[in-house]
Specification:
The chain is α/β, with parallel strands linked by helices. It has 12 helices and 13 strands. 38% of the residues lie in helices and 15% in strands.
Length: 365
């Protein structure tokens, strides 16, 4: 499917502006026109993270299925889990268009969407309807741009989707909602984690099921901020980290067009920066806290590099824009092949092998 996409599908989709192409890809997955991936069901790829049994470590990152329209279609492509959102309590249009820009020479994208989504109620209805189908579906929650109490927006997300989410991601790292990244500062983070996790723990006691909560941070944080985040999460029953979101940096780009556009950069150029931050955080939080590595994953090799740098699971999004819907299934197959080739019995054996190397590097200017 990947070769066919490269030959036909990519050319067709790239004839549309990026946001229209995104909408068409969602519609294609809704119709079931794309063939499902043959599941590998490789025991060497199954992994328990935060109390959840993942069939394989590859997930679809938030940002693609913003409104929880196609989580099951994504799982059929070979992903071990899918994350929907970012969802805000009230529907919002996001930032003015155009707001997505392809950097083709870099296999990258700049977006300044601004949490455009249909709000909690619409997504709740869709997730309720697919509940019996199973599969691991995480819910990424955020705050409305005009919210007067952003912490309350995150609490509302936990309450709304508690019975439906496999896990939650608290997204405080998007660069496209003004002031949102300020929640990564220690005092703000203390309040946010305190209220979100207190709400989760209360609901867990009532429901008898504890939903994991992950915190998604930016790749642009200095070491002092990483220290503060690590120190603060050590004081709270957080279940894991997602590292990282898009970057504001523009170093090392080959593309000439669109590089000056405002917004977050994703794709291949983010791999090094995000992996360095991943390793640095692994050193700070220790071996027990789960981490999901995101940023520039486009092959089994890059997925393994993230795991060796300290990730338990990995996610992708932008690479599928360039490589097509066959990519996740191919990566999963290649992960199995790589383990067999190297005589590795389980993928978890690879974790942390290169943490020191990655953590010693300086992030690109």
């Amino acid at each position: 499917m990947s070769d066919l996409f490269q030959a036909i599908g990519r050319k067709l989709l790239f004839s549309f502006d990026p946001e229209s192409a995104h909408g068409l890809s969602i519609k294609a997955l809704k119709t079931g026109l794309l063939p499902a991936c043959t599941a590998t069901n490789d025991p060497a790829l199954r992994i328990n993270v935060a109390g959840i049994e993942f069939p394989n470590p590859l997930g679809m990152a938030a940002g693609y299925d913003k409104n929880a329209e196609i989580p099951d279609a994504l799982l059929k492509l070979g992903f071990g889990f899918a994350e929907v959102g970012t969802l805000t309590p009230v529907a919002q249009a996001g930032n003015p268009k155009p707001r997505i820009f392809r950097l083709v020479e870099d296999d990258a994208v700049i977006n300044r969407l601004g949490f455009n989504n249909g709000g909690h109620d619409a997504a709740f209805q869709r997730l309720s309807e697919r509940r019996a189908r199973g599969g691991i579906v995480g819910v990424n929650i955020g705050a409305n741009k005009d919210s007067t109490d952003r912490v309350a927006d995150y609490v509302a997300g936990i309450r709304k989707f508690y019975e439906l989410a496999s896990y939650f991601t608290v997204n405080i790292s998007s660069p496209n909602t003004p002031g949102l990244r300020d929640l990564q500062a220690r005092e703000s983070l203390k309040e946010l984690l305190g209220q979100v996790l207190e709400t989760r723990d209360g609901l867990a006691e009532t429901a008898g099921t504890r939903r994991p909560v992950f915190l998604k941070i930016a790749p642009d944080l200095p070491d002092s901020s990483l220290d503060d985040i690590a120190a603060e999460i050590a004081l709270h029953p957080l279940d894991g980290l997602i590292i990282s979101n898009t970057t504001l940096a523009r170093s090392g780009l080959k593309s000439i067009n669109h590089t000056a556009e405002a917004g977050g950069l994703s794709g291949r150029p983010v791999f090094e920066r995000s992996t360095i931050v991943l390793a640095k955080m692994r050193q700070r939080v220790g071996v027990n806290l789960p981490i999901i590595g995101v940023g520039g994953v486009d092959s089994a090799a890059t997925a393994i590099a993230k795991i060796r740098a300290g990730a338990d699971l990995v996610q992708l999004y932008t690479s599928m824009i360039y490589r097509g819907p066959g990519l996740p299934g191919q990566i999963v197959k290649d992960l199995s092949a790589a383990l067999r080739r190297d005589g590795i019995k389980h993928i978890a054996e690879l974790r942390d092998r290169d943490v020191s190397d990655w953590a010693s590097r300086n992030t690109p200017d």
